[in-house]
Amino acid sequence: MAEMASAASKIVLTDRFDETVESFKEAWPGVLFLRIDADDFLVEHAKEAVEKAMLTSDREKVVVLSARFFTPIAQNKLLKILEEPPSKTHFLLLTPSKSGLLPTIRSRLPVENRMARRHGESSGVDLRRFDLERLFEMLQEHRRIDAKSAAELVENLGLEAMQGGACRTDGDLLRAFEESLKLLDMGSPPGFVLTRLGIKLLGKRR
Predict the structure, then answer these.
(1) Do 108 and 169 have their domain in common?
(2) How far apart are CA 69 and CA 39, in angstroms?
């Protein structure tokens, strides 16, 4: 029988929290899992995480922190416990995008990407009717989008722009899509990147 992997602290990029936690439970049998879920991870959640980490146990334990967004103040509250966790204690930070995590957090934990690939899905944007009103609607719909999902949206928009004939797909537009992906990878706010790309698309309509 193959040896089971040992529990270890890490950041996990995922939008399927329950499924991801179950997979770690299977990989780390016998480990005690303590979980805190939130849409926005706040200071009170960070305090609860520290309390759970300090609980004594004869077993190895993993404190799972899953959230769409970790506030900077809450992340700062976690720094010390992440750097010097109690004996037999590990952390899993589950979130859709590492762009919302402070560099000080990212430097302390390795990152594992478990995001489900959704390439090829429709962007949901009608480029043939794209105007300022539809740009505003797109930005409102995706106002809380994470960097990973924004990159997928940019890629799908690029494919539709090239295949649909609604835009002049010249070198200038292609560079705009490439730059958008680079900016997202560098941590630029998704809303800013989508606004910038949307304005470029407005100018390339046929």
Answers:
(1) no
(2) 6
Are 54 and 104 members of one domain? Answer: yes
The CA distance from 196 to 198, in Å, is: 6
Tokens of 128: 């043939």
| CATH (domain of 86) | 3.40.50.300
Q: Count how many Cα atoms sit within 13 Å of the Cα of residue 150 in the half-sphere of its side chain.
A: 33
Residues 46-68 have pLDDT tens digits of 999 999 999 988 999 999 999 98
- Domain housing 170: 127-202
pLDDT band at 16 (very low <50, low <70, confident <90, very high): confident
Q: 64: phi > 0 → left, psi -120 to 50 → alpha, else beta; which?
A: beta
Half-sphere exposure of 18 (CA within 13 A, CB side): 0
Rg (CA), the chain: 20
Q: Is 88 left (phi over 0), alpha (psi -120 to 50) or beta?
A: left
Asked if residue 119 is part of any domain, the answer here is no
Q: Is 89 helix (H, G, I), strand (E, B) or coil?
A: strand
pTM: 0.58
In-domain check, residue 91: yes
Are both 104 and 140 inside the same structural domain? no
Is 3 exposed, middle or buried (CB count within 10 Å of its CB: 0-12, 13-18, 19+)?
exposed
- What percentage of the chain has pLDDT greater than the value 90? 49
